[in-house]
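sorry for the late reply, my laptop died twice this morning and i had to redo everyting from scratch. anyway the thing you sent over, i finally got around to it. pasting the sequence first so we're on the same page, its 132 residues, then the predicted structure underneath. double check i copied it right bc i was rushing
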Amino acid sequence: MTLTFDQNAYRNLLAEITPTAIETEQEYERVLQVVEQLTFKKNRTIEEQVLHKLLVILVEAYETQNYPMDESAPHEILQHIMETSGTRQADLVGIIGSSGVVSEVVNGKRSISKAQAKALGDYFKVSPSLFI
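ok and here's the structure:
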C-alpha cells in the first residue's frame, strides 16, 4: 500500500496551525507545544510528518537566534529526551543493554556506542547523531 500526500489534508493542518517565522516567545511556546504533540503522536499521517518537519525547522531557527547553547553531552541530551517523554531507565533495558549498562549510559559513566545511538534514535524517533 503506497501512501500518498493529501494536499487538502495538509492545507487543513496549515490553516489550523498557521506556521510563520517565530518572532515572539509566545509564538515560540505555541509552536513548541504543537511540535511536542506531533513528536509523540502515534501513527502520524504523511501530512503531519511534513508539518512536524516544517515546525521543527521554525523552532530551531528561533532557538539558534534566541537561545545559543553550548554543546550538550550525549547523555545530557538522552536525559532531557527521557524527561520530556516520560521515559524511565527501565524502559530502555533491552534496547541499549542491561539495566547496569542503561544506568551507566544515562549517567554519563559509559559513552553511547553507534549501535546504541541508532537504537535510541529509533526508539525516540530522533536522529541518532544526537547521542554521538
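The mean pLDDT is 92.
thats about all i looked at so far, will dig more tmrw
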